[in-house]
Amino acid sequence: MNVSEYQLSVSDIQLTGSVARLVLTCETPGDFLYKEGQYLNLVLPGGHKRAYSFASPCRADGTFELHVRLHEGGRFSEMLRKDLQRQYKLTAVGPFGDCLWHPPTHKDAPILMLATGTGIAPLKALLEAELPHCKARVWLYWGCREAADMYLRGYFESLSHRYSHFNFVPVLSRDGSDTQAACGHVQDAAARHHADLSRSHVYACGSPRMIEAAKALLTESHFLRPENFHVDAFEAAWEHGAFADAAPKGEVVELWVTVEGERKKQLLPGGQSLMLALSACGLMHGVCGGRQSCGTCRVVFQESGFRVLKPPSRSEQRLLNTLNNVGPYDRLACQMHVDSQLSGAEIVIPDNPVNRMKQHIA
Ligand SMILES: Cc1cc2nc3c(=O)[nH]c(=O)nc-3n(C[C@H](O)[C@H](O)[C@H](O)COP(=O)(O)OP(=O)(O)OC[C@H]3O[C@@H](n4cnc5c(N)ncnc54)[C@H](O)[C@@H]3O)c2cc1C
Ligand code: FES
User: Fold this and answer.
1) d(Cα 27, Cα 30) in Å, to the nearest integer?
2) What is the mean pLDDT of residues 252-274?
3) Side-chain half-sphere of 21: how many Cα atoms within 13 Å?
4) 122-170 per-position pLDDT tens digit
5) Range of the domain at 136
6) Are strands 138-144 and 111-116 parallel, antiparallel or unpaired?
7) Is the minimum distance from the CB of 235 to ligand 1 under 6 angstroms?
């Protein structure tokens, strides 16, 4: 992933119920590369940022789609309702995220996709890119409250007619009268049809509550391997514990930090993640708040300091593997605690546009 800042112009807006579908064009299409399943951050006036998943595959002309649920009183939602017109210019930073396609290793094992609401966006991008080549059977379960909320139902039905290996199951949680749709929650509808997911990959996007329930159900009772569960949780920053849990406590740890070529001693209070401690000093901004999906908190250790650290978890290593220019002593600051293992360590914070914009980002 090569994180950059981009200027976008809005070329079209379509409103269906409480969902706005935006078509945007990047002003420098040649540089604008992302992988299906990733997201970007729109930087709103005043520096506030909002994450949105790409709803279409990456194209050479820099045009792409976003699906935005309009929330009452929401900052970007209100901006969309009132101000946003065609030709409107927006700034974005990205791409981020690791809910990427994993080629199936067993053609007989089904691939499951679970979405709630606008969580359909990244799955649509993945399906449009991968369905033409995929040999395995793909099942999409899309959950909404009522039939009227399912703004792309006709599109996915026609896709299931075009590709015989693609099955689309609409799931409604508050409308039992639609005989063409399953009733209840997406994870339960999927679990009813797939007893054995031991060789499957599952992609789940949208509500964090659905993602948590699906992971528990499918790994505990349907043999899904946790590393084959790929997620994009639409959790707002204010809902995410990592930002709230910033109260420092315990010992103060001294380490050396080089940023933009300047090396400085930093005294960081313990009891929090290294990402939060460095953010509090204005030295970095972890876009995803510690959910291990953005990579903007990457730091480079000196070899001697690196060797005394506890090794990275599998999920930290997996995200590091997807980042550009990663060296052997790189770690994610959001996955490390400020404690004695960091005492005297030397770290470099690599340059990236998010860190450059950190003073302006709320
Ligand atoms: C990785 C990722 C990808 C995402 N992709 C998408 C996507 O493709 N499509 C999509 O629609 N959304 C997506 N989201 C969610 C999106 O980023 C925004 O959170 C959402 O659109 C709301 O933005 P907003 O500015 O309109 O509302 P906000 O200003 O964030 O407010 C949202 C709602 O919460 C209320 N609220 C605000 N602050 C608080 C608070 N402190 N306590 C309680 N309530 C509060 C507001 O009144 C409003 O009703 C994604 C999120 C993540 C993390
Ligand atoms: S990976 Fe996003 S903050 Fe660390």
Assistant:
1) 9
2) 92
3) 17
4) 999 999 999 999 999 999 999 999 999 999 999 999 999 999 999 999 9
5) 111-234
6) parallel
7) yes
pTM, to two decimals = 0.85
Ligand with minimal distance to 77 CA? 1
- Residue among 142, 234, 238 whose CB has most ligand 1 atoms within 8 A, to mutate: 234
Contact 114/186 with Cβ under 8 angstroms? yes
Of all atoms in ligand 2, which is nearest to the CA of residue 292?
Answer: 1
Please report which ligand is nearest the Cα atom of 334. Answer: 2
**Per this entry, what is the length of the chain?**
362
State pLDDT tens for residues 25-58: 999 888 889 999 999 999 988 888 899 999 999 9
Q: What's the CATH code of the domain at 290?
A: 3.10.20.30
Residue 103 inside a domain? The answer is no
b/e code 259-291 from CB counts within 10 Å (16+ = b): beeeeeeeebbbbbbbbbbbbeeebbbbbbbbb
* 142 Cβ below 6 A of ligand 1: no
